[in-house]
């Protein structure tokens, strides 16, 4: 893909009313998600579950793209159609997680750095042949006493810029994900400060690596108080704080911001995205790239039994529709009742 088609893909991923499904859980993460509904994680079970998500009818109304994991991009539907083709056939753009997870940052106890740059050029080329059109890399920043350090922020921003440049070289749209975790007791103000410092570093490194911002997306955390902070903010306060930080740090050339859910409940994530879009036009599309906030109800409805497939797909469609409404700032909590009528 050349620059023009990467730009077009980036814009299509944040088309009005649509967002991204993050279904790129690594095998260890998928093990945790399946264990939470009492299931053992096997390759066959991970495949069946992903097939339920990818074959839900009408999903292209609310879902523009799906992020896959390395195992998943190589798997097929029961009729032998490769998953990337299943998605394209549904009008949904296939993407791929290309980082190799985090490891301890030497010399900085408690801090992490994302790995996966070695051999990345060759892996990206292979993913392109498999039909991927965008690529995600997640960096993790944690808040605690004396953390994050500048070294941690800089190391992760450098990694994100190297991956983003390699992605564009391969013709893949980078979805740049610096996640400031919500673990901890910190205030929303502290989260705002750390998110701003992180995003400022990320955009400096992207510029120095000549990443074309119009052909990229940002996948950040919302600005929230730590999950163990007694003083939790309202959706309106979260929307205001998040947009204020983004306006200070994210260039308007970026076509869209696709939030991660990061451990918020599915309804919380929807209400907060809705509150941001209610505030009126922003320099970028404000959308979603949710993992847990789109999948939690689906996993519960499926519970490992393919007899529950229809209910699981209905739960997915419902959650996607709620987030589709939040993209327009037209979500209302009473719309949740529609879930019953869909299943
Ligand atoms: P969550 O929405 O569950 O945070 O997942 C998004 C994601 O892709 C994390 O890398």
Commentary on this structure:
By secondary structure, the protein is α/β, with parallel strands linked by helices. The protein has one domain (about 5-340): Aldolase class I (TIM Barrel, Alpha-Beta Barrel), CATH 3.20.20.70. About 45% of the residues lie in helices and about 15% in strands. It has helices at about 5-15, 25-35, 45-55, 70-75, 85-90, 120-130, 150-170, 190-210, 235-250, 265-280, 290-300, 310-330, 340; strands at about 20, 65-70, 95, 100-105, 110-115, 135-140, 175-180, 215-220, 255-260, 285-290. The strands form two sheets. The protein has an eight-stranded parallel β-sheet with strand order 8-7-6-3-2-1-10-9. Strands 4-5 form a two-stranded antiparallel sheet. The radius of gyration is 19 Å and the shape is globular. 1,3-dihydroxyacetonephosphate binds near residues 290, 292 and 293.
- Work out the radius of gyration: 19 Å
Order of helices and strands: HEHHEHHEEEHEHEHEHEHEHHH
Q: Number of DSSP strands?
A: 10
Strand order of the largest sheet: 8-7-6-3-2-1-10-9
Beta-strand percentage? 5-15%
Under CATH at level 1, the class stands as: Alpha Beta
- Main sheet? 8 strands, parallel
CATH topology: TIM Barrel
Can you tell me the overall shape?
A: globular
Estimate nothing, just give the exact number of structural domains.
1
Count of DSSP H/I helices: 13
